[in-house]
Amino acid sequence: MKPPMLYRQFASQAEIDAEYNPAAGLSDPGAYQRHYVERSRLARERLPGLQGVPFGPTLAETLDIFPAAQPRAPVFVFIHGGYWRAFSAGDFSCVALGLHALGITTVVVNYALAPWVGIDEITRQTRAALAWVLRNIEQHGGDPARLAVGGHSAGAQLAAMALQTRWSDDYGLPEDPFRAAVLVSGLYDLEPLRHSYLQPQLQLDDGVIRRNSPLVSVRACSTPVLLTWGDEESAEFVRQSTAFHAAWTGAGNLSMCAPQPDANHYSAIFGFEQRASALCEWIGSQLQPER
Description:
The protein has 291 residues and is of the alpha/beta class. The chain has a single domain, classed as 3-Layer(aba) Sandwich (Rossmann fold), CATH 3.40.50.1820. It has ten helices and eight strands. It has an eight-stranded mixed β-sheet with strand order 1-2-4-3-5-6-7-8, with helices on both faces. Helix 4 crosses helix 5. The longest helix has 18 residues, at 119-136.
């Protein structure tokens, strides 16, 4: 008799861990974190910016803002990954490098981490951060009518949850306030993580999974989405993105898939550092003034 499946075709935690541990198989996964830290230090040295701008009542609820040189600049808000339990906004100042060269203001969101808070609270904080940016970015030279949102890994899940938000009902903001969304190597169905090495810190249950899995709550939305990932990533990370693409387009929404050659889970966001990269060029094209 075959053992019961934990999730889809996976019968053991070891099988799920092999798919959802992005460091597996890399000779030096720490090299990517060192890259983020070093390039982020360079960004803070080279670019004008404000770090630790509060958007909420707790110490973790802050934003780092890298304003463009010109007024009324388009805006990109980046939400970092780390499986909701690692990293901070300061580790990802590097994403502003390529965008600043294109005249785009970049905002990097900081949030509290698991296990001190749960994913419900992290989602709430992310929505509060975006509401703050929409209401206040004009004071920092940004144009709230030309605002894109994006994220990496767990940050892509949080950005996707922003697309599901009832912005008009809950925040008194336009229903679809984002011009575009970039979701890099995201997690859109949290169910497998309940059976993984992450569960002791994340403490996922049926309610948390249902409320925070963008794949199961897609609504009609006018925001076009770019889904991208490294072609060296696991089959499950690829499936997460392609499944969300199918659900997003199935609801009548716009989505494009763009796997990145010779990239892994960590290097899939390196393009934000280069103005001529496909990531930066797509964001720039979406944030052009309306004619």
